[in-house]
Design a protein that fits this description.
heteropentamer; A mainly alpha (about 230); B alpha/beta (about 240); C alpha/beta (about 240); A: about 230 residues; mainly alpha; MetI-like fold; 8 helices; flat; B: about 240 residues; alpha/beta; 5-stranded mixed beta sheet; 14 strands; about 35% helix; globular; binds adenosine-5'-triphosphate; binds magnesium ion; L-cystine transmembrane transporter activity (chains A, D); L-cystine transport system permease tcyB (chains A, D); AA_ABC_transptr_permease_3TM (chains A, D); ArtM/GltK/GlnP/TcyL/YhdX-like (chains A, D); transmembrane helix (chains A, D)
Chain lengths: ~230, ~240, ~240, ~230, ~240
C-alpha cells in the first residue's frame, strides 16, 4: 500500500504544482477583481443623472444577471459551456484559459455578494465622518471603508478560496490533467481507486490546511486594530 | 468547424489525440507517464503520418464535446463503431475488435446473457457497455471506472458488469485470487465491437492519412505486437 | 460668517425643518438646543451638507448655495471645507492609528506634506494631553479620549467652524468633564463653534448665542443671557424639563 | 434543437423529482441537525468538571476534527469513500443512504461553522439579560439566542442549501441516476452534450431561483422584529 | 435582607474587588457611586451571579453562598431568583414583542399560567403608560421607553431586589427624566433597589444609603446625608468632579 502511495506521489504533486495551485491562484486573483467591481456596481449609488444614470442602471442589471446565472448553475456546466460551447460562436479558448475564465467568473459571482455585504456592514457613520473631512467617495471607499470591510470579508473569502482549490478538480472535464484526474489515471493502472482517492484527498486537505493557517494569520494581522472590546 | 482546409489539424504538424487515460490497458498512467495500448498505437500512428503526437486527457462526459469543439483531432478511446456514432462522426479503420463479456462472481446465478434480464449491471454512463447492458434487458448502473465496477460486483451492489474481455483479463493479472469470472456473449447477440479512431465528419483528408498509417501498422505487425503486449492475445481481427 | 436662510428639509412626507434662518457669528460659540426630534441634528448636518436641504440658502462670505437651484460639486466642496463635524459617537476610523486619524484628511484631501501634517497632529495631541497615544488604535482609548481625538481630527483640517452634535452625551460624567473643558478652552481661543447639546451648564459657561429649535422652527434666537431670562413659556418649560440633570 | 430539448425534459424532470430534490431536502435536514449539534459543542462552555469535562473536551476534539476533515477534502471523495470504501470495513450502504450520509455530513460541517458564528454574533448581553431573569442555559439558547441567530444565519444557510442542490449532481458517481447523470445518458445517445448541459443548467437555475425567492420571503418574515433602525 | 462579606474578584491578574462587605437594606434604595473602573458594575453583577466572585459570602435571609466552598446549582438559582438586573443598554429581547419580553420569564421560568402572566404584564405596562405598545417590538420604541419596559421585565419576576447599572446613562435628558421618575416612584413604593449611578440628583432625591467604591474597596458606606456632608477628601473630590453635570 505505502509503495503505491509513494510511487504515485510525484505525479500527483507535479499535477498540483502545474495545474491545481496556479489555476486556483490566478482564478482567485481575477475573481476578486471581478467581485470588487461587481460589488461596487451594486453597492454605490452615484449621484448622476441623464444618460449616465441609465447606463448605471443597465450596468447594475447586467451585474445582477451575471451574479444570478453563475450562482444558480453548476460550475461544471459553466466550464463545459465556456470550453466546449463558445467555439460554436467562434471563440476558441485554450483549456487553461477557459478554466481560468470559468473559475474567475464563478468566484467573482460568489465573492461579489460577500464583498457587497461587508461594505454594507461598515457603519454609515464612517462615511459621514469621512465626508465631513472632505474625502471624496472613492477616497472614502479606498482609505476608510475597504480596510474595514477587508477584516469582515476575510473569513468568508478565505473559505471561498479553499472551496476554489477543491473545485479545480472539475478542470479535468475540460482536458486539464490536474491532480484529481491524474489520480484517476493512476488508479486505472493499479486498480486502487479508493486508495488513490484517499491520497488525493489528503493532498487537498494538506493544501487547504495550509491555507487555513494562512487565513488565521491574516485575520490576526488584519484585526490588530480591534484590540479592546471594539465599540 | 470552420477550419481552413479539411485536412488541417488543430495544430499543424501535430496530431492531437483525445482520450480519458483512465482505462487500463488501453490508456492509463504509470510512473507519471501516460501509457497503454492506445497511447502507444496513437504515437506510432502519428509518427507514420509524419506528425508529432500530443495527448489530451479528459473525462468521458466531455470526450465527444471536445471533438465537436476541435479540442483534439481524433479520439483513441476504445471507441466502438456504431450506426449512431457513424452518423455524426467519421471512423478510421478498426485497430482491434473488442469482445464484450459479462463479468460476475464465480458462483453467480447468471450463467449466460439471458439471465441478465432485470439484473443491475455496472457500466460507464453512456458507454457501449451501458448500451449493451440495456440491449440484454438489464438495468445499467453507472460506474466511474473499471475497478469500481469490480468492487460493485464484489460488494454485491450489482450482479454483473458488462465490459471488454481484454480489460478484465488485464485486471485479472493483478488480481490472481479473484472471485470474479466472465461469461461470453454470443456474437449474434452482441457483435464484437470494431474499435477505431474517431474524428469529425469533415476530417476526410486526415482520415485518409490515418487509414494509410493504420494499414501500414497492420502490415508491419505493430498493432499485433502491441495487442499481445497489452492484452496477451491478438485481438486485431474479428 | 456663516448664514442660513429659510432652510427646509423633509424626510419623506415629514417636514423636519420648516424654514430656519439665522446667522452663526464668527469666533463665537452658538449652542442649538431643543426637544428630541425637533430637527437639531438635521440642521447641523445641513451645514456640512451631510443632509441636503430641499430649499433655502447657505452663505459663507462670498460662497453661496441656493438649494432650489443646481449648484456645482466644486461649490459644495468649497462650502464643506469651511466646516467640520464632531459626532456624538466620535466615529474615529478604527482601522487607522490615532495619528493617522488626524493626518489622513490633511495629507490626502488637503495635500499637506506628510511631515508637516504629522507635526501639526502631534501638536494637537500634545495640547489635549494624548500624544502618548499617537500610535494606538481608537479601540484602545476610552470614550472621552476618543472624543477628544475626534475634535483634534476635526481641527486638523483647519475648518472655519466646528460643528458638534451632542459631543458628550455618550460619555460618562468624568469623561464628559474632560471633553467639555477642552471645548471651553477652544471657545475661549475664539474658535467658531456650533454645538447641539443638552448640557445647560456648558451653554451657561461657553455659549455666546443660543438657538432654540422646536418642531423644525427656530423658536428662540438670541444671546445666552436673553435665553436664560426669557419669558417664553416654551423655553421655560424646556429648561425645567432637563433641570433634573 | 427544440425537439431534443423537449423530448429529454420528462426524463430530466423525473430524475429531479425522484433524486435531486429529495436528496437535497433530506440531506439538508439531517445536515442541519448535525450542524446545530456540532455548533453547540464548539460554542457552549458548560460549567462541569471531572470526567464530564474531559468528555466534553474529547467531544470538542472530535467535532473539530470532523469539521476540518469534511471542509478540507472534496465532496466527491467523501461520497466515494462512504459508498465504495466503507464496505471494506463491513458497512455496506445503499446508494441513496450513502449519498444522504455524505451530503449530510458535508453540509453539517460547513453549516456548523455558519451557525456557530451566528451564535457568537448574538450579544453577550442577551445571555446576561436572560440569566438575570432566571432562564437556564438551554432555555436561553432556545428562546432567546437561537431566534436571533436564525435571522443572521438564514442568508448563508440558504446559500449553502442552494449549493447543496447543485452538489447533488455528484451523486451520479455513486450510481444514483439524478438529473445530471440522466442528462449525460441522454447526451451519450444524441451526441449533443452541450445542449444537454445547457438544458440541465436551466433546470438547476430554475430550482435555485425558486429557492432564492423562498429565501427572501423567509428573510423578510424573520426580520419582522427589526422594524426601526434596530439598536 | 441581602448581605455581602469580603467579596473579592480578579480578572486575570487584576484584582477588581478587594474585599467588600456591606448590607443592602430591605425596602430601601442603595446607590453605588465611584469613579470609572472602580468595580461598581462588577460588584452589582456579583449580586446576581453574572460574575462569580473568587472569595466571600453572599447571604440572603437563610440562603448563603460562600464562594470559597462549592455550592449547588440549586442554591445559586435560589439566590438569583431574589434579584433581577436592569441594564444600562436595557437589553430587551429584540425577537420578542414588548408583552412577550415581560411574560417570557414568568411563563417559562416561574411557570405562571399564561393568562395570569399576560394580565400582570398589562398592569405593569399600564402603570408605566406603555400598554399601547404591548404588541410592538423593542426596536419600535425610544430608548427611554425601552428602559421603562426593561424595568417592567425585571419587576415581572417579582424579585426582592432590583439591581440597576447606570439605567439612564444611555438616555438623552428628557428620556432620562421619564425613567428616573419611574424609579423614584418605585423607591417610594418600597421596592428594594440597588443602583449604580452617576446621577447625584437622583441620589439626593431617592437614595437611602450610599456606597462609594474606589479602586475595588468601599471607601464610604452610610446614609445619603452622611455622604453629602462627609469630610472625606476623596468623596469631596469625586463630588466636585461630576458637579459640572
Ligand atoms: N434620515 C432620516 N430619514 C427619515 N427621518 C429622519 C432622518 N433623520 C431624521 N429624521 C427624523 O427627523 C426628525 C428630526 O430628527 P433630528 O435627528 O434632526 O432631531 P434632533 O433634534 O437631533 O433630536 P435628538 O435630540 O433626539 O437628537 C425626527 O423625527 C427624525 O425621526
Ligand atoms: N470581564 C472582564 N474581564 C476583564 N476585566 C474586566 C472585566 N469586567 C471588568 N473588568 C475590569 O474591571 C475593572 C472594573 O470594572 P467595572 O466595570 O466593574 O467598573 P465600573 O466601576 O463599573 O466602571 P464604570 O463606571 O466605567 O462602569 C475595570 O478595570 C475593568 O476593565
Ligand atoms: Mg440629534
Ligand atoms: Mg460600570
Amino acid at each position: 500500500m505505502w509503495e503505491i502511495i509513494i510511487s504515485s506521489l510525484p505525479s500527483l504533486i507535479e499535477a498540483m504544482l502545474k495545474y491545481t495551485i496556479p489555476l486556483a491562484l490566478i482564478s482567485f486573483a481575477f475573481g476578486m477583481i471581478i467581485a470588487i467591481g461587481v460589488a461596487l456596481i451594486k453597492f454605490l449609488n452615484p449621484k448622476i443623472n441623464g444618460l449616465l444614470s441609465i447606463f448605471w442602471k443597465l450596468l447594475r442589471l447586467v451585474a445582477n444577471f451575471y451574479v444570478w446565472i453563475f450562482r444558480s448553475t453548476p460550475l461544471l456546466v459553466q466550464l463545459f459551456i465556456i470550453f466546449f460551447g463558445l467555439p460554436s460562436i467562434g471563440i476558441k479558448l485554450p483549456p487553461f484559459t477557459a478554466a481560468v475564465i470559468g473559475f474567475s467568473l464563478n468566484t467573482g459571482a460568489y465573492g461579489s455578494e460577500t464583498i457587497r455585504s461587508a461594505l454594507m456592514s461598515v457603519s454609515k457613520d464612517q462615511w459621514d465622518a469621512a465626508y465631513t473631512l472632505g474625502f471624496s467617495t472613492p477616497q472614502t471607499l479606498w482609505r476608510i471603508i475597504m480596510p474595514q470591510a477587508f477584516r469582515i470579508v476575510l473569513p468568508p473569502l478565505s473559505n471561498e478560496f479553499i472551496g476554489l482549490v477543491k473545485d479545480t478538480s472539475l478542470a479535468s472535464t475540460i482536458t486539464i490533467a490536474e491532480m484529481f484526474q491524474v489520480s484517476q489515471q493512476i488508479a486505472a493502472q493499479n486498480f486502487q481507486p479508493l486508495l488513490m482517492y484517499v491520497e488525493v484527498a489528503a493532498l487537498y486537505a494538506f493544501l487547504c490546511t495550509i491555507l487555513s493557517v494562512l487565513q488565521h494569520y491574516l485575520e490576526n494581522r488584519s484585526s490588530k486594530f480591534i484590540k479592546g472590546d471594539g465599540n | 468547424a470552420c477550419g481552413k482546409s479539411q485536412s488541417e489539424t488543430k495544430t499543424p504538424g501535430t496530431l492531437t489525440i483525445g482520450l480519458e487515460g483512465t482505462y487500463a490497458p488501453y490508456a492509463y498512467r504509470k510512473d507519471g507517464k501516460l501509457t497503454g495500448f492506445e497511447v502507444e498505437l496513437a504515437k506510432d500512428t502519428a509518427k507514420k503520418m509524419g506528425m508529432k503526437p500530443k495527448f489530451v486527457t479528459t473525462g468521458w462526459d466531455s470526450l465527444i464535446a471536445g471533438l465537436n469543439s476541435n479540442s483534439y483531432d481524433v479520439i483513441f478511446n476504445n471507441m466502438a463503431e456504431n450506426s449512431k456514432r457513424k452518423k455524426q462522426f467519421r471512423f478510421s479503420k478498426p485497430y482491434v475488435y473488442s469482445k464484450s463479456v459479462i463479468i460476475t462472481k464465480k458462483d453467480s446465478k447468471i450463467k449466460n446473457y439471458k439471465d441478465l434480464k432485470g439484473q443491475e449491471v455496472a457500466a460507464g454512463t453512456g458507454t457501449d457497455n451501458w448500451n449493451n447492458a440495456k440491449k440484454m434487458g438489464s438495468t445499467p448502473v453507472s460506474s466511474p471506472d473499471f475497478q469500481t465496477s469490480m468492487n460493485m460486483i464484489n460488494q454485491g451492489r450489482v450482479s454483473a458488469a458488462v465490459n471488454s474481455r481484454e480489460a478484465f483479463e488485464y485486471w485479472k493479472k493483478s488480481h490472481k485470487d479473484t472471485d470474479l469470472t466472465y461469461k461470453t456473449i454470443p456474437n449474434n447477440v452482441i457483435k464484437p465491437d470494431a474499435i477505431a479512431p474517431m474524428m469529425n465528419k469533415n476530417s476526410s483528408a486526415l482520415n485518409k492519412k490515418m487509414n494509410k498509417a493504420l494499414d501500414e501498422e497492420r502490415r508491419d505487425g505493430t498493432i499485433k505486437r502491441l495487442s499481445i503486449k497489452y492484452f496477451g492475445t491478438d485481438i486485431t481481427n474479428k | 460668517m456663516l448664514k442660513i436662510k429659510d432652510i427646509k428639509k423633509s424626510f419623506g412626507k415629514k417636514e423636519v425643518l420648516k424654514g430656519i434662518s439665522t446667522i452663526f457669528p464668527e469666533k463665537k460659540t452658538t449652542v442649538i438646543v431643543g426637544p428630541s426630534g425637533s430637527g437639531k441634528t438635521t440642521l447641523l448636518r445641513s451645514l456640512d451638507l451631510l443632509v441636503k436641504p430641499d430649499f433655502g440658502i447657505i452663505e459663507f462670505d462670498d460662497l453661496k448655495i441656493n438649494f432650489s437651484e443646481p449648484f456645482t460639486n466644486k461649490t459644495a466642496n468649497a462650502l464643506r471645507d469651511k466646516t467640520s463635524m464632531v459626532f456624538q459617537n466620535w466615529n474615529l476610523f478604527p482601522n487607522l492609528t490615532i495619528l493617522q486619524n488626524i493626518t489622513e484628511a490633511p495629507i490626502y484631501v488637503q495635500k499637506v506634506n506628510k511631515t508637516t501634517a504629522n507635526k501639526q497632529a502631534h501638536e494637537l495631541l500634545t495640547e489635549v494631553g494624548l500624544d502618548e497615544y499617537a500610535d494606538a488604535y481608537p479601540s484602545e482609548l476610552s470614550g472621552g479620549q476618543q472624543q477628544r481625538i475626534s475634535i483634534c481630527r476635526a481641527l486638523a483640517v483647519k475648518p472655519e467652524y466646528i460643528l458638534l452634535d451632542e459631543p458628550t452625551s455618550a460619555l460618562d460624567p468624568e469623561m464628559e468633564t474632560q471633553v467639555l473643558e477642552m471645548l471651553e478652552r477652544l471657545s475661549d481661543q475664539g474658535q467658531s463653534m456650533i454645538m447641539v447639546t443638552h448640557n445647560m451648564q456648558f451653554a451657561k459657561n461657553a455659549a455666546d448665542k443660543i438657538l432654540f429649535i422646536e418642531n423644525g422652527k427656530a423658536d428662540f434666537d438670541g444671546t445666552k443671557d436673553e435665553f436664560f431670562s426669557t419669558s417664553s413659556p416654551r423655553v421655560k418649560e424646556f429648561l425645567h424639563g432637563i433641570s433634573l440633570n
